[in-house]
Design brief:
The chain is mainly alpha-helical. It has helices spanning 20-24, 26-30, 44-73, 77-101, 106-110, 125-134, 139-143, 149-159, 164-174, 181-184, 196-207, 213-244, 256-262, 269-273.
Length: 280
Amino acid sequence: MSSERPIEAGITNLRVEMSYGEYLHLDQLLAAQHPLSRPVNHDELLFIIQHQTSELWLKLVLHELLYARTCLIEDSVGPALKALSRVKHVQHQLSEQWSVLATLTPTEYAQFRSQLGTSSGFQSWQYRAVEFVLGNKLAQMVTLFDHDRKAQELLAGLLGEPTLYDEFLRYLARRGYPIPDAVLGRDVTEPWRLVPDLVGVMSDLYRDPKRDWEAYETCEALVDVEDNFQLWRFRHLSTVRRTIGDQTGTGGSSGIGFLRAALDLSFFPELYALRSEVGN
């Protein structure tokens, strides 16, 4: 009896009009890894792929967050929640990826680290775009990308647009919630800051979630996104500490100090502050 496995039924010729590789542009994708170490260091490929795949996932996160924002503008909460659910799954992938990079020991990383030059994850415009959509806006970040016109234009556009949270609060206002006028008319180019008057509004929503389950569920979805973002930040910090300790990061960043400070940032502070109010 032959041990060969049968070819999938219906497949008679691999030369088709549109192949798997052509659809995914695999020739370009798989040729996009260019280690700079000479002789080529075995572990540099891991470092490159780790960051390239992270950028691909960030592209999808940004795509879904912008779609969720559009859905909220249109009062379509269901599709917005579906998009946020997908974002959460992508965030899990991003966090788990750090465990792969953590297999890179300090000795192994030192063999090719000098080849990175001034490049740094701090320069990821997609990461900045995601933070802008979620509310952590810094106008000076736009000027930092004057070497990349396309990235700068995208960030400048997002800087002047309402965040995902802004559009959720506007949605709540249209539903009759007493969102302060100062919130609805705020300067959206500024980073979000805790609004004490908004905590009471959110607390009332949580005290009777059945009254508006969609709004309540959206609040929790936003909290999930922030929790996952914080987990990703922490895993990043842990991996960097494990690999280079307290050394200065590439590109001149402070390394662990910068990453640790990021853990104090909050996109939706009212959604956390209300937890001290509900039940009291």
